[in-house]
Amino acid sequence: MRSPPNYYKEENAIPQIRSIDDASNDCLEWFRSQPGAKVSPKIRLANLSSQGRGCGVVATHDIEEDEELFCIPHDLVLTPANSDFRDKLEENNDEYINEKLAETEPWIMLVLAMMYEFGKGKDSRWWPYFRLLPDVNTDDMNCLLVWTKSELEELQASAIIDKVDNTKNSDEIEEICCTILERVAGFWGSIYREDDYADPFGPVRTLAHHFARLIMAYAFDLEKSEDEVEQEEEEGEDGFVEDRDEQLPKGMVPFADMLNADGDRKNARLCHETDGLKMMSTKKIHAGEEIFNDYGDLPRSDLLRRYGYISDEYKKYDVVEISFELIFNVSQELQLSKGQAGAASNEIISLLEQWDAYDDSFDLTRECGDRSQKLSGFDPMLIMTLKATTLTADEVDVMRRLQKPPKPFLEESSITLLKDVVIARQREYVTSLAEDANLLQSADLPRRKRMAIEVRMGEKEILASTLQFLNEELEKIRATDDGDTVMGIASESGPENKRRRKV
Asked: Is the pLDDT of residue 241 over 70?
């Protein structure tokens, strides 16, 4: 068991930890002492370091499906809202810092909260919890946050790379931490010791990156409870509730993050309830079995980005992203080849926004190439975008005046465009599926390279099966006398099926 980096004053120093068992027992005792926290007598924290997994949670008795394993009250979750670090900063009355915080991403806000609480030492409510958190370094984890540039390049054209800007992340963390260090005296507490370092910011920088890695590996997205969702639905105008796609706040959830995750052996899931976060069993668990968390329907690319591993169990959730920009550019080329002039990008976007169907990217899933799904596997908003990008400027004006979106049917023109888009997307990858399959035959592939190959292969498989399916549909259409025959419908309810839910 390794403790966080040794950047604290002696009076707040972490006591010497003899073993994982000592730290886990202390943390469990602390957890049980917190108001509202509950732990089933049928489970215990276990030292699984001999299996390469550090701490874990194991059943001591048989557990039935849908049993509550433990409950974490909302105020025990380590979040920026539950920490008083914002109050401390507001006492300084620094408008510049307040403006910087307003622009800061949720996960970086959590970094700041953790650093502040850690700097308080034993005065922090979460001090026993900090003692149990591991020292996660770049050798211990493989989330994309710690990959090198050359390692990230192995993902080739995967859109997951756009979600990872390690240089930008590092700069943002250091900028806000440095700003606070310079403008708020004593804020970092025991972390900052000017007399001990040639670079006074060094300890703050190191600990910031340490907690950033911990958050990537262990933090949870804090979703709204069912009661909160229902309340919003009741308050929704015209019977609909908007999905704003806003970033969910993140938090470190004591005890819940002690569970290991396994896509094949998952048997528990964290539920967000009104009275707290509850870990519930999803199947019967026998005494002696380890309890594994479930990450939900994550594609392997996101599993790798956030947690640093992949599993075949999540292969069915793989996606490949198609950008609006790519669809528009391919459509323009297709229309020019026919001697036509398409509408401008801003005109098409305006029309799609009027239809409530604009997005900057769309997911193709394994269902898109599944013949049993026919054409229902395609996102209705993608179909609307295909239709819109084939319009001329005059046709866009006509559709705007109609103020009624067309039904999301896939016709020959839309299928042809989508086929060309898929081909263009395939060309963005450096290697072929066959070449990737050959690369995987090597027994000495580095782990990160192997995972990158498997992720990009999953995306290429989706593109290949989708292309084959679209070609088959075009053959069916062209075998009929009517080239505009409608071959399928993407959704019974149209684009609102993705963004809105009927109350």
From this structure: no
